[in-house]
């Protein structure tokens, strides 16, 4: 049976640009790199960047909500969001749910989120104001 997320691999068009984005701007720890990839770590998350010349980011107007969310402490949130804006990073959504979030794109258009809080906080807020048709299970 599955136990949790093992790692996330992102296809990238320019390895060094992506390493710089994740390591320098987002503060993700770089463990190894090679000609066609890199291994990074963010808390318990193992992130692999894999060079794939077929990857090309053309349109920020991607329609689905698929994205990867990273945890961030509330005390660091505003500074983090300001750093993204200062670096002219594109934002793809405005947060409307419980907990501070910013939704932004990496250099290849992968949709990312920095989120304050976790599942327990979200469920607590949803129990107070449930989504349409929401049912809770113990």
Would you spell out the secondary-structure blueprint of this structure?
Elements lengths: L7 E5 L2 H11 L3 E6 L2 E6 L2 E7 L16 E4 L2 H13 L4 E3 L7 E5 L5 E5 L3 H10 L10
Parallel strand pairs: 1-4, 5-8
Antiparallel strand pairs: 2-3, 3-4, 6-7, 7-8
Please explain how this structure is put together:
With 138 residues, the protein is an alpha/beta fold. It has three helices and eight strands. The chain has helices at residues 15-25, 74-86, 119-128, and strands spanning 8-12, 29-34, 37-42, 45-51, 68-71, 91-93, 101-105, 111-115. Strands 1-4-3-2 form a four-stranded mixed β-sheet, with helices on one face. Strands 5-8-7-6 form a four-stranded mixed β-sheet, with helices on one face. A hairpin with a 5-residue loop joins strand 7 (101-105) and strand 8 (111-115).
State the strand order across the main sheet: 1-4-3-2
Mean of pLDDT: 87
Strand content: 25-35%
End-to-end span in angstroms?
A: 20 Å
- Estimated structural class: alpha/beta
Largest sheet: 4 strands, mixed
Structure annotation, total helices: 3
Poorly predicted sequence stretches spanning 5 or more consecutive residues: none
Radius of gyration: 16 Å
Please write the string of helix (H) and strand (E) elements. Answer: EHEEEEHEEEH
In helices, the fraction of residues equals 10-25%
* Strand runs, count: 8
Shape: globular
């Amino acid at each position: 049976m599955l136990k949790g997320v093992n790692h996330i691999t992102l296809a990238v068009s320019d390895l060094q640009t992506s390493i710089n984005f994740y390591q320098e701007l987002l503060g993700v720890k770089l463990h190894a790199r090679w000609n066609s990839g890199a291994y990074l770590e963010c808390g318990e998350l193992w992130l692999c960047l894999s060079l794939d010349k077929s990857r090309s980011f053309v349109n920020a107007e991607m329609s689905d909500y698929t994205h990867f969310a990273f945890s961030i402490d509330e005390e660091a949130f505003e500074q983090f969001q300001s750093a993204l804006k200062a670096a002219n990073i594109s934002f793809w959504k405005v947060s409307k749910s419980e907990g501070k979030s910013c939704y932004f794109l990496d250099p290849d258009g992968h949709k990312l989120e920095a989120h304050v809080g976790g599942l327990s906080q979200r469920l607590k807020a949803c129990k107070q104001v449930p989504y349409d048709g929401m049912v809770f299970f113990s």
